Backbone:
């Protein structure tokens, strides 16, 4: 009974909504972001500090 009650709690419902958002909006970006990271930092490191 307690487990069923926790499933209906506002906190639990918020966690489910957040997990849904993460799965639909954030995870699909992971592969592209990984490629960006793997591309290296050579282009940004080639800039002089005054460029910032």
Residues:
């Amino acid at each position: 009974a307690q487990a069923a009650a926790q499933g209906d709690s506002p906190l639990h419902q918020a966690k489910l909504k957040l997990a849904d958002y993460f799965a639909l909006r954030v995870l699909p970006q992971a592969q592209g972001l990984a490629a960006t990271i793997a591309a290296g930092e050579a282009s940004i490191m080639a800039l002089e500090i005054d460029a910032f």
User: Anything to note?
Assistant: The CA atoms of residues 30 and 36 lie 10 Å apart.
